[in-house]
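Dear all,

This email documents one entry for the complex benchmark we are building for the journal club exercise. For each entry we list the sequence lines for every component of the assembly. Then comes the predicted three-dimensional structure of the complex as a token string, followed by one or two observations. Please use this as the template for your own entries, and keep the labels exactly as they appear.
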Amino acid sequence: MSEIALENLGKTFGDFTALADMNLTIANGEFMALLGPSGCGKSTTMNIIAGMLRPSHGAIRFNGQDVVDVPMAKRGVGFVFQNYAIFTHMSVRENLAYGLRAQGAPGAEITKRVKAFAELLQLETMLDRPAAGLSVNILQRLAIGRSAILKPAIFLLDEPLSNVDAAFRAVMRSELKSLQGQFGQTMVYVTHDQLEAMTMADRIAVMDHGKLLQVGTPLDIYNNPADTFVARFIGAPGMNILDGRLIQKDDAVSVEVPGIGSVDLPPALQFAARDLNGSDVQIGFRPEQVSATGSGLTMRVGLVERIGARTIVHLEHEGIAAKAVLPADVAPPVARKDWTFTVPEDGVRLFDPVTGQALKARAH
Amino acid sequence: MASIRFENVSKSYGDVLAVDQVNFEVPDNAFFCFFGPPLSGKSTILKLILGLETPDSGEIFFDGRPMRDISPPDRNVAMVFQNLALFPHMTALENVRFPLVERKIDGATIKARVAQVTDKLHMAHILHKPPAQLSGGERQRVAIARALVRDPVAYLMDDPISALDARLREETRVELRRMQQDMAKTLIYVTHDQEEAMSVSDQMLILEAGRVRQIGAPHDLYDAPNSAYVASMLGAPAMNMADTSDAIGALSTAPDIGRGTQTIGIRPEHLKVARKNGPGRVTAIEPLGATTVLSVEAAGITWKAALRGQPDHEIGAPVELSVDAGGLHCFDAHGNALSAA
Amino acid sequence: MTKVSTIEPVAELTDAPVKTGARLGLWLTLPAQLLVLFIALFPILMQVYISLTDWSPLDGIPWWRAHELWTGLLNYADLMADSRFWGALWRTFFVMAVCVPVQFLLGLGLAVLFVDDFRGKRVLYSTLLVPMMVVPAVAGYMFFMLFQSGGPVNDLLSLFTSDPVRIAWLSDPDLALIAVMLADIWQWTPLMFLILLAGMISVPQDQQMAAILLGASWWRRFFTIVLPRMKSIIIIALAIRVIEIFKIFDTLFIMTGGGPGVATETISVYIYKVTQQELIWSYVAAIALAILIVLSVVSVFAIKRMQRGQGT
């Protein structure tokens, strides 16, 4: 069991900054997802925690102890590689026993632990099978078991589902989540798939271009993204972001989106935006909060994707694109026609058009 | 432009019957998707269309013309490969021109043809770039344009975007759909991703072990699957399936089921979860923002319920399950759908 | 990136029309195949034929009329009783038993050193490969000079003794074989090194990382991950060297001519002498066939092991 603290952690390769001043504390037993597009620094962070890379500056503490100088074999970290790195020239049993043997555990102890883990992971029947040619979910279980048998305080997983079929990912996700529940270790999970992060993680750290943008629970991040990048990256599809202008009429502040319409602001945002009359702003709203009733915004309907339980409506107005997600029981709008929709007040978010930062809601 | 028709086509390899008495028609200009698990015969059907394989029995027609003796190049069907196979050392334009230059067609014709295709696919701004500088969707465009300049009667695409990031896949599938509408050509598509399949296609054909299980518009297949197999292939989370007796034990109101029902299917979005003392226990909560997926254990089965928004639930709390009137699917002992009660 | 669970079955990939195509291809290439078969088979059959006679080029009859001198299995019987043949064979195996393991261990050690980066690696690497590129005859002459009683090897040894060393390396029956083996080790360790290094580089990095993270020491990783994963390539390297040493000739012949006496006479040298000096061609044919059989058995064994190795 271990708490991980990253303090001003940075990594540069020549002129390239792979990771810039990362500060993050991962609580004991927490499932933390590092989420971002490729090249965002998430794998660099993970490799530094594991000890495969040495940070250019900053500290990593496990339970308060700086481990920068501790070699990776001594950090007590379990690592699950993207392709699982199973020793395919050995049997399942030899894979499971590898770490215990390496650490010189007595034979009886090894036999006992391997048996217990095989039961836990439901691998008893295949212990003596060669590890080559096992299916992916078995490989995943074996990779986790091989590390978990050493009872590492920390578990690191590097995009373990990226080579898995779409149809199979859901099964693998729930299996992984339940394994973590069984072992209770601190888990750091690197992924580019927001769905994996949302469904499994206790908290998500969203990264881009070597910077940590936001840390929070999945719903925190979904509901209150810190900036437009996070807003667009989380959700499928991501948040709609449109350029608009703040208009103050009497006491009410609304956002006008040129050519499309205007949206009223909830009281907390009205208060925050009170002194900004006339200034440019970006308005964000989730596609699934769009409702077909009422008035407010009008855009032309493009493609309509009917995907089982929901319908994604692609909207367009003079090069500005937006999406709406409707439940399957709502009749989708007609393609190539204008469509008027509303965004509920509490679904509206505002962002600074220059920095992309979210405008914080403020109470009176 | 062509419609493609299979009549009783079978193909086996040794003892393995890869394609078994298959009948279907791909209408002209349709986006037609083959969907099924590995081994279900999708690749064999593609090869039969391309002419790389000859059927053991049955006949394939393009616009009513039998294809048995027509060689692959003469069928004029284009294939876009999974890895796109663009030439990395050429610009997008050179890639697109390549098939025509290779055929020694005169310069003016090439120019006109390339311009026509690239205009249609709105790719003027990327023509001077090499593939390495293009996004996933743009590369797709180049690969398709390269296939299109030959003016094929139809395109085949075998899982072309599975290698992309989740986010990029969502964008690229929309691109693909737009492109197909722009170019107005028959597009035959194979994918493993049910959401992608439903998103892009006009019609889907669902295969199981070389046999056609159902053909239709994606939402028709989703709403009215003719079998438990088809029902389970579409939708994420997948449809809840339970023996009738278990379902009756789990649901608060006895479902109104037809005679001969063995299995009941309920889509996660049609399952209602009420926070009151019922036979169910919440075992997992997956908050996705737009929806919340609950796992509820009731009558010895784990049910998945996809609730809209972010309702308040607790792990371990008792709940009561019920189902919308139209949300019940009934299947007989063979897994065939009975008309819902 | 492989998508493990989406691989379509092999059956879907095999291609019925290709089979008919393959048959046509067979007919078209048949003349060429027959020619190749003839070229490979003819000398062997000719040898079998001659080995059953007492023919020699001095007999004045062409080889195809050798049956006039038919002796049946007499050559083979002679061979069984030929102590010089058995001596040469034993000597060859001895050289093999010493040189191959030494070359393997040296090559493996060098590969371990070279698999990681260090300063001056490239220069050293090129230097190490030089012996392999030296023409064997030249190498033979080099070692012939080195091991003269007034040569550099003795001069070097003299640095450590009070009296100048004057060992007659190449004329002492025991030392001559050692000198010959040293030359072979010098020349062929680089090949072993090269093959083993290639094998070592191809061992997946993440598997080694995984082993490190599981707490495995360097030695444990080496014996449980690196070596097992190099199995096929090790067998190839050993097979190449075993077969080559069986044919050891040029360097050795220039150094010692097989002498003193028969002290360094290996199978190849023996065959050469019987052919060129004693001109008993039918007997040579019998020897050559016997060796071909031995070598084939060794190769088949190695290939079998290799195929099993690739299964894992």
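Observations: Chain C is about 75% helix and 0% strand. Residues 1-19 of chain C have pLDDT under 50 and may be disordered.
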